[in-house]
Amino acid sequence: MPRLDLLLPFALPPAELAADLRRQIDTPALAMLAGRAATRDAETFDEFARALPHERWLARRFGLAGETDTSPPMATALMRKYGLDADGGLWFVLHPVHLHVARDHLVLTDLQGLELAEHEAHVLFDVALPLFEEYGRTLLYGDAGTWFMRADDWNGLSTATPDAATGHNVDLWMPRGTGERDWRKLQNEVQMHWFMHPLNAEREARGALPVNSLWLWGAAPGEHTAASETGPVFTAGAASRLALPVSVTAARDAGELTASDVPALLNLDTLIAPALAADWGRWLEELHALERDWFVPLLEQLRGGACDAIGLTFSGDRRLLQLDVTRAALRKFWRRPSLDSLFS
Question: Which of 29, 158, 178, 324 gives 296 a disulfide partner, CB atoms 3.0 to 4.6 angstroms apart?
Fold first, then answer.
């Protein structure tokens, strides 16, 4: 029985904005899918959880759930994406970031807004590398925005994903526990060297954000492997750092998503960036684009029998809602198309 699972990060808006946003949403295909669906599960997460609901869900999907008081153990799975060998030990993910100076604290800005070019990242990496080596830490380059560090003795270090911390006072989300002081010292060393580097002066001169810190998360042992039975993974955007995606860019490819015997995952992650930026006008635009490009054709796929069931996983900053809609359920005409489950 072909089945497709959809993940829609930040499709559940904040409660205080839900009523206003709902009046402006025009997504009849999504309303049909959600209105005829049955609820499989609903979860509410702590306000200060160190990973967002959709990040926890993705980690469970890959068999990488880990502890709940730290970020999911994604480092070595992501390393394989870049062809890097995690030969034992404990590995962390590192991102070059911009910390915004607020009145009395520092705020982590969205990584997508940094727009760090490869040649710039290599310059900053080359500055940081000898500092890491002085502290006895291996530093590896993945791409402009994603690096990796080995620290075998930091097994008790609790970290937060960058998206969970974005827009917040970083003091609440900084690493805590074993290795905390050592990380702060190394982080401060890198920050001082980057602050004085002419690359950041050039970036600021053209209106780009300076790269002034590093974000650490995702600790995983070198032998940790992702589950192989999860089926193929596709993404419609580039915002998710956990999807390990195979890119799918057009709705015409939707029929290919149900070709596997193992349910495929379609990660429609284009709502993440506007939600993190609290740009709800752009959030509405992206949701309506998802309706046009994905919900309409996928509803037709379900009606036409190309797939027999679609799993819908919606998330917000604290909530996760999982629905299942089958081809047979679409015939339940007495259940009106509705987005009530998303806004209740």
Answer: 29
Dihedral angle of Cα 233, 258, 54, 14, to the nearest 10 degrees: 140
pLDDT tens-place string over residues 174-184: 999 999 999 99
Ordered domains of the chain (ranges, CATH): 3-62+228-343 (3.40.720.10), 75-221 (3.30.70)
The secondary structure of 10-38 as a DSSP string is T-S--HHHHHHHHHH---HHHHHHHHT-E
pLDDT tens for each residue of 136-190: 999 999 999 999 999 999 999 999 999 999 988 898 899 999 999 999 999 999 9
Tell me the C-alpha to C-alpha distance, in Å, between residue 182 and each of 112, 135, 151, 187, 334: 28, 9, 10, 9, 61
Secondary structure (3-state) at 163: helix
Angstrom distance (rounded) from CA 231 to CA 90: 27
- Look up residue 124 and give its amino acid: L
Q: What is the pTM of this model?
A: 0.86
Rounded (10°) angle between helices 28-35 and 296-304: 50
Q: What is the DSSP string of 219-250?
A: EEETT----STT--EEESSS--SSS-PEE---
CA dist 315 → 69, 140, 288, 320 (Å): 19, 32, 17, 4
In Å, what is the CA distance from 135 to each residue of 124, 131, 139? 17, 7, 11
Q: What angle do CA 338, 342, 344 make, to 5 degrees?
A: 95
pLDDT, tens only, 254-268? 445 554 555 788 899
CA-to-CA distance for 275 and 154, rounded, in angstroms?
32
Phi (first) and psi of residue 224, to 5 degrees: -70, 125
